[in-house]
Amino acid sequence: MRVTGTGHAGMRFETTGGSVLCDPWTNPTFFASWVPFPDNTGLDWAALGQCDYLYVSHLHRDHFDAENLRRNVSKDARVLLPDFPTDELENELRDLGFRHFVRTRSGEPIDLDGGLRVMVTSLKGPGDGPIGDSALSLDDGTARIVNQNDAHPLDIPELLEFGAYDAHFTQFSGAIWWPMVYDLPTAAKREFARRKRIGQEDRAMRYIREVGAPNIFPTAGPPCFLDDELFRWNGLGYEGVENESIFTDQWEFLGRMRELGHDGGHLLLPGTTAEIDGPAVRNLTHPMSDAEVERIFVDKESYLREFAERARPVIEAQKAAWSAPQPDILRQLKEWIEPLMKRADHMCDGIGGVVRMDLTGMPAGAPGVDDDGVLPLAFDFAGREIRTWDGEQARYRWTIPATLVQTNIDTGEVDWSNSLFLSVRFAATRVGQYNEYLYTFFKCLSEERMDYVENWYDAANDDGRDIELDGWKVQARCPHLSADLSKFGAVDGDVLTCTLHNWKFNLATGRCLTSAGHEIRAEKLGASD
What we know:
- The longest helix is centred in the middle third of the chain and has 26 residues, at about 185-210.
- The protein is α+β, with helices and mostly antiparallel strands.
- An eight-stranded mixed β-sheet has the order 7-6-5-3-2-1-15-16, with no helix packed on it.
- Helices cover about 25% and strands about 25% of the residues.
- It has three domains: about 1-315, Metallo-beta-lactamase, Chain A (4-Layer Sandwich), CATH 3.60.15.10; about 330-455, SCP2 sterol-binding domain (Nonspecific Lipid-transfer Protein, Chain A, 2-Layer Sandwich); about 465-525, no CATH class.
- α7 (about 290-300) crosses α8 (about 300-320).
- It holds the Pfam family Rieske.
- GO terms for molecular function: 2 iron, 2 sulfur cluster binding; metal ion binding; monooxygenase activity; oxidoreductase activity, acting on paired donors, with incorporation or reduction of molecular oxygen.
- It comes from Actinomycetospora corticicola.
- This is UDP-MurNAc hydroxylase.
- Keywords: 2Fe-2S, Iron, Iron-sulfur, Metal-binding.
């Protein structure tokens, strides 16, 4: 099995059963803040995109690069589709022209052409997107690998049922905005960042030990920040500029592995190739000299400054496309988000109060805007409304450029955590601990996502109970998005309809009539009499 690095979590595998392209990301994302590190723009993406199979692990934009997928990846490729609770990933890929899908079930191997065996392990909890994350296992008879990317926590015993792995491609760096954007004393921010880096390394090492592969390829991080106002967030080594970045790079992590006695680490750069022959890695070749490789990491600031100049036109073009904030932005937010608040009892109750959002750069004279061009808003989760802030206590406060919020409104961006917040183009304060409900809410700005997560929370303690509906014993939760069928189930003959999203099931066979998969557990009462 031959692997070619394509940057970040991206790679292409040449197997006995065909080529598999994974997470091909190259364009700046998250409001032009994240850029793949090292530079992968010089790769022959058109050639890389002529693949037999495409695997996109999840919809986060450092994995799902719509422009690259549209331009360069063959639409004849068969997509290895993770088993997610919603169809968003499939729908977005279909919008780009992909038509051939291999539907997987989480943790279940599939035999493909040419002796290629694959398994996609999917994560489906609210912290995973909430539409999911996933890992890919491949076995072509010459090698067995697992591409973990961002998928954690994984069920390692389930993963190992695929077999012992020869190579493990693992995330080792972070994807979060804490503590970088928070209003904290400098010493505290540096200490929290240090702890975050160590925690991420420790998590990666635990996975490495549990999976037990002899060969480790650190992937899925870190990005780099090439916009001038964000450059300080680059991890420039533990003694780097301001020392407030949470990001560890590949060079540092491989050094940490060696310190801990693991000598099986390999550096996978964009364009690096290697052959995985069982437990042996042969012919690992970088696309540049050893001295040039070392310069990327040892003289990192200089490398990044040069990269920033090359990337400046692309970044400025993206910034120029952002929306101008409109005077009625409060009305737009109310119309979109207040109905979702009313569907989100678990999350609203978990947040339990007011979140203040100060929108900066608002047009002068707009309703509620102060002399500094700031519109202070209150997201009142207890009252299920959005309004102008009237001075009340708020445990959480964000200061955000209004242009970013307006852009998300105009594009219908349903996941602000993985767009606006990961951009690190905002400031935050909070009293107390991180609130999972708050950031999960802003991942779920669509009815489908909100309903899924609310039902997920509602079913968190469900023990597989059944209910009775019109002469049938039926599982209590809809297989689609876990809706309570005692509330939303309607039976007509032997067909059950979940009225929340109008999904239909044949109770006699258990088959879902709306989509592939999603079988239901049911039996006719009195059928054994």
